[in-house]
Amino acid sequence: MTTLPGTTMSEWSRHPFVARLGRMIEPRKGDLECLRRLIESSATIRKHRDLVIDGYEYRKLCFVEEGFAARYKLLRNGKRQILNVLLPGDVVGLPGSFLERANYSVIAVTDIRIHACSIEAYVALSYQRPQFALALSWLAAQEAALHAEHLINTGRRTPRERLAHFLLEIHSRLETVGRAAESSFDLPFSQEVIADALGLSVPHLNRTLALLRAEGLIAVHDHRVELIDTTGLQALGQFQPLVLTRIPPEHFPERRTPAFRRDAR
Amino acid sequence: MTTLPGTTMSEWSRHPFVARLGRMIEPRKGDLECLRRLIESSATIRKHRDLVIDGYEYRKLCFVEEGFAARYKLLRNGKRQILNVLLPGDVVGLPGSFLERANYSVIAVTDIRIHACSIEAYVALSYQRPQFALALSWLAAQEAALHAEHLINTGRRTPRERLAHFLLEIHSRLETVGRAAESSFDLPFSQEVIADALGLSVPHLNRTLALLRAEGLIAVHDHRVELIDTTGLQALGQFQPLVLTRIPPEHFPERRTPAFRRDAR
DNA sequence: CGAAATTTTGATCACGTTCAACTTCAGTGG
DNA sequence: CCACTGAAGTTGAACGTGATCAAAATTTCG
């Protein structure tokens, strides 16, 4: 399962996680190389296997290169709530690795390819290059914001609205890592997964899905979702894309060339 | 409303946010002083006033010293979902300040006393002292974990379970900043606030509250909650306290290479 | 004290769960 | 090639929870 890192620098620079990083920060010289050297292992996990298990200590950060996973919690009564789906570019171990023991499990929904490093190594690098610590803050904040949207979904939106919001969110997130077309994308989730993500029962999710199809808002073939009426969906789900700010760059106190340096952004 | 910072160092060291920091990291010499100098203003906000407004840019971090607030979202249909309640020691502007425009509002539920700094200043300090950036990551990760619990609450728990979980969470969080007794605490929230936090209607929350009282699990007088049967509540709400790890300390005490090299842009 | 906000109680009913059966389809072995 | 199996998707009927609306009771506060 685990293989040697063996990633060339040019492969690495096309990694969807690196793409996400680039949206937050202008990498300094050597940053990407440092990050790549942090990677202790890369692995392909077969679908249905758990990557993280509720209740156990977990001290890694895994960067998803390819495939889909889901962070979830199993309740006493057998119900499952999916907290978030993990897409290429996402980080496994956030927030699990910050807790004494992970509070949630993570399961591979498809075969999934990851690169892993220990949280300690990442932190050690952060002391040398604080931009990595800031990037981690930004990632965690985005995670919190995503959870907040999901909370609104299950707390106060009707099933139709939830589903519309869910589809738009996935589409938007896949788009930022180049894994979605203009108005369609592959969604290799069973209806059970979607139902557990939205806090619905499978039959009701099925009906809701059928409803959106009947209303001409979406179409589904195989596991490809087509957003037919994007504006209608956005209005229905009250979807506003989450746009992260860029991380403010380091400010050099010795401003010998202030006129040049001043950044008009 | 806004006053001069005017906080003495000894007051500052008793600030509940500083208490939370101390649980994550061993502050270095001068750290607390640096943080204090970051504070641009301190203020007391009257209850029912909004601190952050959905849709507007917000670029501050505010550390709550005293009082209660709530992060919430208003939906088109007039419903409100409270995403999280902010207690002493919590940070306003997380994750709002990481987004181009805040996605949520924050309202003061009681009069609330805060100390504010700009996110830019905090980031600038983080480049000098990376432990601040790491602390921010840890705070954001905790926020994400809290949201995850709330998501499980509204998604898959019955109203009784939700309420039990909610009360235990608040108690646990207040305890870590020394604002709760062994098994009781002040909760100055109206039932409408709690209902909006749990995704319930006010009448149903009221009945659920009455149920827990009738079952001898809790008692409420004025706005003080007493947890009579803590273990029963924990079993009911399936509550596991969130325990953050400490941030790994820097390995090599010598400072990182100074920043006089070229701007690797 | 009076007005407004909050809490409590009651009656009704729509929505979404539950449970069950049935269909479709992919994979597998006879 | 077809029968068998199991997983995933679809449909239907019955039930119960929690929302909604309304009004009364109580508390808070100007």
What does this structure look like?
The structure is a homodimer of 265-residue chains. Helices cover 42% and strands 20% of the residues of chain A. Chain A is an alpha+beta fold. Chain A has a single domain (2-237), classed as Jelly Rolls. In chain A, a hairpin with a 2-residue loop joins strand 11 (218-221) and strand 12 (224-227). In chain A, helix 6 (159-176) packs across helix 8 (202-214) and helix 6 (159-176) packs across helix 9 (230-237). The first copy, chain A, is globular and about 55 Å long. Residues 255-265 of chain A have low confidence and may be disordered. The interface between A and B is large, with 67 and 65 residues.
Q: Name the beta content range of chain A.
A: 15-25%
The profile of the biggest β sheet of chain A is: 5 strands, antiparallel
Number of helices, where a helix is a run of at least 4 consecutive DSSP H or I residues of chain A: 10
* Total discrete domains of chain A: 1
Biggest interface between protein chains, with counts per chain? A-B, 67 and 65 residues
- Predict the CATH topology of chain A: Jelly Rolls
CATH class categorisation of chain A: Mainly Beta
Overall radius of gyration of chain A: 20 Å
Oligomer: homodimer
The residue-averaged pLDDT of chain A reads 92
What would you give as the CATH superfamily of chain A? Jelly Rolls
Low-confidence stretches of chain A: 255-265
Order of helices and strands of chain A: EHHHEEEEEEEEHHHEHHEEHH
Work out the helicity level of chain A: 40-55%
Helix-strand makeup class of chain A: alpha+beta
Which strands sit side by side, in order, in the main sheet of chain A? 1-2-9-4-7
Compute the separation of the termini of chain A in Å. Answer: 46 Å
CATH architectural arrangement of chain A: Sandwich
Total count of strands of chain A: 12
How would you sum up the global shape of chain A? globular
